[in-house]
């Protein structure tokens, strides 16, 4: 009986570990700018290589580099207490998060210039609801590196978790300045204007055009524009940008994406 209970406990911990690993992965190599576009199958089925997602090479460049820490840098507190602030975190998830926070903090005390380790620690801090612990780390990483992930994550945090839309916009702008080829940041800023930052809702399409200026002929941006115009009932523009997306898909011999775009067009015409 004891062996059976032990096996069940181990299984639960394994499942929890997989869940947490997925959460941390998404925080490190973020494509959450697509999250509010769940009905846009075009995005999820892109095979053209036009979309600048984090490939394995990109991930390595973004997270395995060392920080260039200045002499005046103020380090995040690696002795910060581990307090579970999230109300819906399971005991198994809590156990794994506490363990990893302790391990990562110890590693950084020995080797403080590990970029990816700082990002992972921030993700676990956010997971347990310690938003300000995560903010402290992301700010530090942003200041001591040329990467954009920390600013992208801060932009999303201030959009969804600690709503401050002006601050969210500011961080997303910093992320774009760091890398204006990373499409999900434009989509996240589009989502901010479209769903939340009502005072600037008129910029929802402008930021997509800005993305196209830096990334001409990008299917994600064309299809998102078309979807946006469909939602506001500007069918003429919606058709125009679906046709642009369709043209690019056909040029790339991406039949699956082209078929999906064509079905959208057929529904509008």
How would the blueprint of this fold be written?
Blueprint: H1 2-28, H2 41-44, H3 56-63, H4 91-110, H5 115-127, H6 131-143, H7 149-161, H8 165-178, H9 183-196, H10 206-214, H11 219-231, H12 235-251, H13 255-268
Termini Cα gap = 65 Å
Count of DSSP-assigned helices: 13
- SSE arrangement, N to C: HHHHHHHHHHHHH
The number of distinct structural domains comes to 2
Helix content: 55-70%
Strand % is under 5%
What's the Cα radius of gyration?
Answer: 21 Å
- Structural class of the helix and strand makeup? mainly alpha
Total number of beta strands: 0
Low-confidence stretches: 29-61
What is the overall shape? Answer: elongated
Please tell me the overall pLDDT.
83
Largest sheet: none
What's a quick, concise take on this entry?
This protein is mainly α and 269 residues long. The protein is built from 13 helices and no strands.
């Amino acid at each position: 009986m004891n062996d059976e209970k032990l096996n069940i406990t181990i299984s639960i911990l394994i499942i929890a570990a997989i869940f947490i690993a997925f959460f941390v992965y998404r925080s490190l190599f973020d494509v959450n700018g697509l999250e509010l576009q769940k009905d846009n199958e075009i995005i999820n089925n892109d095979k053209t290589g036009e979309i600048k997602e984090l490939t394995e090479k990109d991930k390595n460049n973004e997270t395995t580099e060392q920080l260039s820490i200045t002499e005046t840098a103020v380090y995040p507190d690696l002795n910060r207490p581990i307090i579970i602030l999230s109300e819906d975190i399971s005991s198994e998830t809590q156990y794994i998060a506490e363990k990893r926070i302790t391990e990562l903090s110890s590693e950084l005390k020995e080797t403080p210039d590990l970029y990816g380790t700082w990002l992972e620690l921030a993700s676990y801090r956010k997971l347990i609801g310690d938003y300000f612990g995560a903010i402290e780390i992301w700010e530090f990483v942003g200041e001591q590196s040329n990467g954009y992930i920390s600013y992208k994550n801060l932009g999303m945090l201030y959009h969804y978790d600690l709503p401050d839309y002006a601050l969210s916009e500011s961080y997303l702008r910093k992320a774009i300045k760091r890398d204006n080829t990373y499409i999900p940041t434009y989509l996240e800023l589009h989502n901010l204007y479209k769903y939340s930052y009502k005072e600037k809702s008129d910029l929802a399409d402008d930021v997509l055009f800005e993305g196209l200026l830096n990334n001409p002929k990008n299917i994600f941006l064309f299809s998102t524009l078309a979807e946006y115009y469909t939602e506001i009932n500007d069918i003429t523009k919606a058709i125009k940008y679906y046709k642009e997306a369709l043209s690019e898909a056909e040029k790339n011999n991406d039949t699956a994406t082209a078929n999906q775009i064509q079905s959208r067009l057929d529904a509008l015409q």
